[in-house]
Structure formats: C-alpha cells, structure tokens
Amino acid sequence: MNSNADDSGAELLAKPSGTAVSPLSIPRHVAIIMDGNGRWAQGRGLSRTEGHRRGMEAVRAAVETSRELGVSYLTLFSFSSENWSRPPLEIQFLFGLLRLFIQRDLANLHRNGVRVTVIGDRVRLSSDIRSLLEQAETLTRDNTGLRLVIAFNYGARDEITRAVRRLAEEVANGRLAPDAIDENTIRSRLDTADMPDPDLVIRTSGEMRLSNFLLWQAAYAELVFLPAYWPDFDRAAYLQAVEEYSRRARRFGGIAARRSG
Ligand code: IPE
Ligand code: IPE
Ligand code: MG
User: Fold this and answer.
1) Which residues surround ligand 3, an ion (CB under 5 A)?
2) Which atom of ligand 2 is nearest to the CA of 34?
3) pTM for the whole thing?
4) Domain of 148?
C-alpha cells in the first residue's frame, strides 16, 4: 500500500500531469458519451455484452473521480433513443445492466450523498424499470453531493420534440402566448431544466460526433475526444480530459478568454 495514497488527489490538482504549471479548472458539469464497449470486447475475442459489463465498472470509477475532483454534475449517456436499432438480446442486456446498477450501487451512492436523476423518455420503458428509476430518484432526492444524471432512452431531438409538444399544448390551452416564448421558456421544458449546461463533454472510443446527445445544452461545451474505449476509461483518462479542458479558452461568443470551472 502506498502510504501517500491519501495525498494523491491534492497532488494531482496541484500538478495535473506532473509537469503542468497551472492548476486544473474543474468543470461544474461533465457529460460523457460512454462509447466503445463493443469494440473493447471484440478486440479481446469477447462478446459485446462482456464489454458492457466491464463498462459498468468504468461508470463506478467515473463517479468516484467526479466526487474526488468536486465535479457537481455528471451526466452519463447510457442508452440512446437510437440504440433501439440494436439486436434485441443486446438491448435486453443493457436494460439488465441498468437494473443491476441501481440494485447494487444505489445504497452506496446514497451513502456517499450522490443524488441520482434520470433524463430521457420513460414512456417506452417497462414499468419495472420506470419504478426502479423513480425509486433511485426518490431515495436520493435530498442529497447534496454529486448529481449523477443517467441519460437512458435519451436522444436530444426526442427531448426537444417533447418540449415543443408541451409548449404547443400550453399555447393551445391559452396558458402561453407565442411571443412570450424565449430561450428560457424552451430550456425549462427540457429534461435538464434544473441543471446547468455541460461545461465538458467527453466521448471515448475515438469517434468524433455527438450522436444526438445534449444538442441544445452542449452549445458552448468544450468537447474532448479520447481514443480509449469506455471500459478502459479510468481516473487517469478522466484527469487527462480535465487537463485538456483546463487548457481551453472559453469565449461564449465574446472576445475575452474566460477560464471556466
Ligand atoms: C457504448 O458502447 C455503449 C452503448 C452505446 C450502450 P457501444 O456498444 O456503442 O460499443 P461500440 O461503439 O460498438 O464499440
Ligand atoms: C452513443 O453511442 C450512445 C451511447 C453512448 C449511449 P453509439 O455507439 O450509439 O453512437 P454511434 O451509433 O456510434 O453514433
Ligand atoms: Mg458505439
């Protein structure tokens, strides 16, 4: 055992990569597209489902590192509205993993003050999954530590479509005037209404696209694409992404660079 283990976090904050001079900027909201489970497994002669299973361990590590760094919101893209096009057995396995994650990890998350919430369309989910998700949200509702946001059956176009439908109903009912609609009106009907926009979006597996993730909310997010497959995403990879984020100059359309965190 390393007797300095307790100091490692602080040391890394002071010297992110051993040689870097500036301290890390910690993003308030990190959103991750957890990609590459299938390729990780196939490269080892394993089944895709084994890759998903190992991916769940990387989820635990990502939650721990978020807590260690002081990230306030961690959003994990777990199942997209487009992932329904996968083979039924793989879909079943992914749903089973969500179930398992909540059954096995919820108590520990709760003990650590993590608040769990879910974004995405729940209507198409079976009632047992829906009630598990509600159970997780209810149990952890008053926690003030990390907010863990599970994006499940989530797609940004679907989310925006549902928000627009809600707005149209309010206009049709006479409860909302069309000219009263501004960006805040729309924002407040999205699944993420009570959260700040992501500062950092990480995607693993080398793919450089958003795949319908947080299209509205990521308008000014910093995007970091890592070559590692999701099951290999560990604390070091997370820190690497935060270091990259720390080097970015955020301007939000203005001219003065603003470091965020
Ligand atoms: C990410 O890994 C997990 C989900 C999308 C649910 P993939 O299953 O997409 O793995 P690859 O991209 O095929 O390697
Ligand atoms: C994005 O990964 C969805 C999740 C990580 C849940 P995909 O593997 O589904 O994305 P594409 O198909 O490569 O764009
Ligand atoms: Mg993929």
Assistant:
1) 35
2) 5
3) 0.92
4) 22-155+197-247
Query: Which residue among the candidates 7, 37, 83, 179 is catalytic per the annotation?
Result: 83
Number of domains within the chain = 1
Angle ∠(152,147,123) on CA atoms, nearest 5: 25
The Cα 155–Cα 83 span in angstroms is: 10
Residue 217 CA, ligand 1 centroid: distance in Å: 22
Find the CATH number of the domain harbouring 45. 3.40.1180.10
Q: How many CB atoms lie within 10 A of CB 185?
A: 13
Does residue 2 belong to any structural domain of this protein?
A: no
Q: Answer whether 213's CB lies under 8 Å from 151's CB.
A: yes
Burial label for 67, CB within 10 Å (0-12, 13-18, 19+), is: middle
Q: How many CB atoms lie within 10 A of CB 101?
A: 19
* C-alpha–C-alpha distance, residues 110 and 93, integer Å: 25
Which residue is catalytic, options 35, 105, 158, 191?
35
Is 37 assigned a catalytic role?
Answer: no
Helix count and strand count (H, E) for the chain? 8, 6
CB-defined site of ligand 1, < 6 Å: 34-39, 79, 83, 94, 205, 230
159-186 tens-digit pLDDT = 999 999 999 999 999 999 999 999 999 9
pLDDT of 93-129, one tens digit each? 999 999 999 999 999 999 999 999 999 999 989 999 9
83 catalytic, yes or no?
yes
